Amino acid sequence: MTNTTAAPVRDLREFHDLGRLIALMTGAEKHAPAAHSTLDALWVLYDKVLRVTPDTVDDPGRDRFLLSKGHGPMAYYAVLAAHGFFGEELLPGFGAYDSPLGHHPDRLLVPGAEIGSGSLGHGLPLAVGTVLGLRAQGLTDPRVWVLIGDAELDEGSNHEAIAHAGPAGLEQLHTLVIDNASATHGWPGGIASRFASAGWAAVTVDGRDHEALYTAFTTPHPGKPLAVVARVEPKG
């Protein structure tokens, strides 16, 4: 089996090139605020944290990344292209009938995508199921990350997943919440308190600060799942 425990191989591109890559994707359905809210966190994850490369996308020992906040996936596509999962020549076709890059990612069409996304609220339950499936196979090293939006926490499916994962001690599970103040309902003490009350380790950081994001992503959390709440500017 390919060794996926090493740090990811970095592409020659850097973070500042992502703006150019996103600009290659045009059309009326870009959901630009949703895309840009995730940009910094996605970059840090793929550049410094996730143990998966274009050569290990089928390796059972790879880390898994699940994009639940699937609308507005341009930042995701740009980061995947920047790290060599597919060529940037696919980006201008974004959203076209014959393009693999749809308005929601399709795991059967997008190299590196672990799930197809659609209705909000599915990603975190799928991530819980992924961890349970890995455990059943004796694979306790791969880490599972899922990116959700704060508005997804209005969905009851996520509350059920949160309530199960903490007591079950799903240490392999990591949830990244992009908080752009778009949720309908609030939580006393903030979003992190919702996870902490269910037995998760939880931290809140500036979603534009790469160093703070990396520190949060690598926070030790023995015996508990980890939630990282990344605060960005409110959705306009």
Task: Describe what you observe in this structure.
- The structure is a single chain.
- This protein is α/β, with parallel strands linked by helices and about 240 residues long.
- About 30% of the residues lie in helices and about 10% in strands.
- It has a five-stranded parallel β-sheet, with helices on both faces.
- Helix 2 runs parallel beside helix 3 and helix 4 runs parallel beside helix 5.
- The N terminus is likely disordered.
List the helices and strands and how they pair.
Elements (H helix, E strand, L loop, with lengths): L17 H6 L8 H18 L14 E4 L6 H9 L40 H14 L7 E6 L6 H13 L4 E7 L11 H6 L4 E6 L3 H8 L8 E6 L5
Parallel strand pairs: 1-2, 2-3, 3-5, 4-5
Helix pairs in contact: 2-3, 2-7, 4-5
Relevant terms:
236 residues, alpha/beta, five-stranded parallel β-sheet, 7 helices, 12% strand
Question: What is the gist of this entry?
Answer:
The chain has seven helices and five strands; from the N terminus they run ααβααβαβαβαβ.
Class of secondary structure makeup: alpha/beta
The amount of helix comes to: 25-40%
Q: What is the beta-strand fraction? A: 5-15%
Average pLDDT reading? 90
Which stretches are poorly predicted, pLDDT < 50 over at least 5 residues? 1-12
Which strands sit side by side, in order, in the main sheet? 1-2-3-5-4
Taking the sheet with the most strands, its summary is: 5 strands, parallel
Helix/strand order = HHEHHEHEHEHE
Number of helices: 7
Oligomerization status of the protein chains: single chain
Cα gyration radius (Å): 17 Å
Distance between the termini: 46 Å
Q: Compute the number of strand runs.
A: 5
Give the overall shape.
globular
